[in-house]
Design a protein that fits this description.
By secondary structure, the chain is mainly alpha-helical. A hairpin with a 5-residue loop joins β1 and β2. α6 packs across α7, α7 runs parallel beside α8 and α10 packs antiparallel against α11.
Length: 446
């Protein structure tokens, strides 16, 4: 007999006592998922860190869709990449801006990068004891474990002073790329019986350069590859205080717990396929589509494929076309727009023009069909092209979402600090009780 048979029976019976009718949400004015009826988010705070714009309000207060824009401290992210000469450290420049509120000059950026690189080295025995001897089957869970373990190496881990939180956060930022790469190496060594390759980070390398260097057997990479990964990290650095993982960070931090716990909780939120894990789902979906219809598929084949996915009639899919749609962006996701341009350049250099062309053609067809089916503007989002970018960089799929963590940690930190400084209250929303009031029945009388 199934040892859980009784639990299954209890659970089945419980539906008679626990159901909450959908109509009650409207009756009591409760915003499901903290979303308004027009799909906009409920305001839960104020920020000067980042702004995500996907719609505007007309004179009557109605929502009007518009081209998407992402601002870091009031600066359009597209302005960062208009310069013709790439000098590296794009991600680090964005980190400085997000944390301190202004663009650094050359000296300030150099000093900031040195602070980060001085934190590259892991504590003594950390690699051996916590990663090599304890490989994790899921890297996101392993990152959580590793961050919580770093608590034990901190002489004053529960100090939540704003400045101390900043210092601890920068220390984590410096170590996280190595932890992610080593966690991957230990996993494939243990579970896949592959050779164990460990490269130590170089202080003269940026975050992007170190990731590529640590992942590749010969540590080599081209400038174009480093530029693309730097751009990916830059585009994922922050996305406002309303994203699930950032909101989670602020909620947990508002209890005045340690930074290792708050960052670990954010990783848990980011792991889900409805948030950061969507990049893996999108990558797997596109791989399945290409394997099924081929790179030379006709427009009719592409259209049929989209409909099959929507109707849950395509292998490996669940009715969602991953990489499309967003909670805020409507007509376009600026990160996807930027990524598409750089994708094309690297794809050409790597002889993957046909793959890139397929992505573009599928994107056009999917946007048209999904928008028509839902009766609203639907755009491709950052997850659609990010997996293709990682693939071109020979980054294993296991690391797609962990690299999202590496990038987004600075955003979590910035919002954590801002909330400590200018709000400071424990986040304590309310829920409306809609159950019945019942008398207690003695056990013998039930």
């Amino acid at each position: 007999m199934d040892q859980n048979i009784h639990v299954a029976q209890f659970y089945g019976k419980s539906q008679n006592f626990t159901q909450i009718p959908r109509a009650l949400y409207t009756k009591h004015g409760v915003k499901r998922g903290l979303r308004n009826e027009d799909h906009t988010g409920v305001l839960v705070g104020l920020t000067r860190i980042a702004d995500v714009v996907g719609y505007r309000r007309d004179a009557d207060g109605h929502k009007v869709n518009c081209e998407g824009t992402l601002y870091y401290r009031g600066i359009d992210i597209s302005d960062f990449i208009k310069k013709d000469i790439y000098n590296g450290y794009l991600y680090e420049e964005a980190c400085f801006l997000l944390l301190f509120g202004y663009l650094p000059n050359k000296k300030e950026l150099h000093e900031f990068c040195k602070n980060i690189s001085d934190s590259y080295e892991l504590p003594d025995d950390f690699l051996e004891m916590n990663l090599l001897r304890m490989p994790g089957r899921n890297l996101m869970n392993k990152l959580q474990h590793a961050l919580l373990t770093l608590y034990n190496y901190d002489e004053d881990p529960d100090n939540t002073d704003v400045y101390q939180t900043l210092l601890k956060g920068l220390n984590i930022m410096g170590k996280l790329p190595s932890i992610a790469c080593y966690a991957y190496m230990s996993k494939v060594h243990y579970y896949d019986r592959r050779s164990l390759i460990i490269h130590y980070p170089r202080k003269d390398y940026s975050t992007a350069e170190n990731i590529l260097s640590m992942l590749r057997p010969d540590s080599s990479f081209s400038e174009a590859e480093a530029h693309l990964l730097d751009l990916l990290l830059f585009l994922h650095a922050d996305h406002g205080g309303g994203t699930n993982s950032t909101f989670t960070n602020v909620v947990v931090a508002s209890t005045d717990t340690d930074i290792y716990s708050t960052m670990s909780s954010s990783i848990g939120a980011l792991k889900g396929p409805r948030h950061g894990g969507a990049n893996v789902r999108a990558s797997k979906m596109m791989e399945q589509i290409i394997d099924t219809v081929g790179l030379n598929a006709s427009e009719k084949q592409l259209r049929d494929t989209v409909y099959r996915i929507l109707n849950k009639n395509f292998p490996g899919t669940d009715g969602l076309v991953y990489g499309f749609g967003h909670a805020v962006y409507t007509i376009s996701d600026p990160r996807a727009e930027i990524m598409r341009n750089y994708c094309g350049e690297v794809a050409h250099k790597k002889g993957l023009d046909k793959h890139f062309d397929f992505y573009q053609r599928f994107e056009s067809v999917a946007k048209d069909i999904i928008s028509a089916e839902k009766g609203m503007d639907i755009c491709s989002n950052v997850d659609y092209y990010s997996g293709f970018c990682y693939h071109m960089l020979d980054i294993p799929r296991d690391l797609y979402t962990p690299l999202f963590v590496v990038s987004r940690l600075v955003g979590w930190l910035a919002h954590n600090l801002e909330n400590k400084l200018y709000d400071g209250r424990i986040m304590r929303p309310a829920t409306k009780y809609v159950g019945d009031l019942l008398p207690y029945i003695c056990r013998e009388e039930r």
